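Extended Data, panel c. Modelled sequence:
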Amino acid sequence: MLDELKAREKGSEVEIEVGIEKFTTESGKNVSTANAELYISYSTASNVYRESLNWRFTFIEQNGWRLCEAHKE
């Protein structure tokens, strides 16, 4: 997704920024979750737009921590 955004930015006069606004975690013995509010903002010469996306990531400990689910909320 980031490569796609960079390609769009390069081919136009639009600046794109992607980042994390909020980040929380909940840890258990074999399962942990991370909640993140991600944002995408882009601006032109005259306007600024911003979109927030909430994601929840679930990790399991199985010979090392592994991402097993990602859900847009």
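The chain has one helix and four strands. This feature is highlighted in the accompanying rendering.
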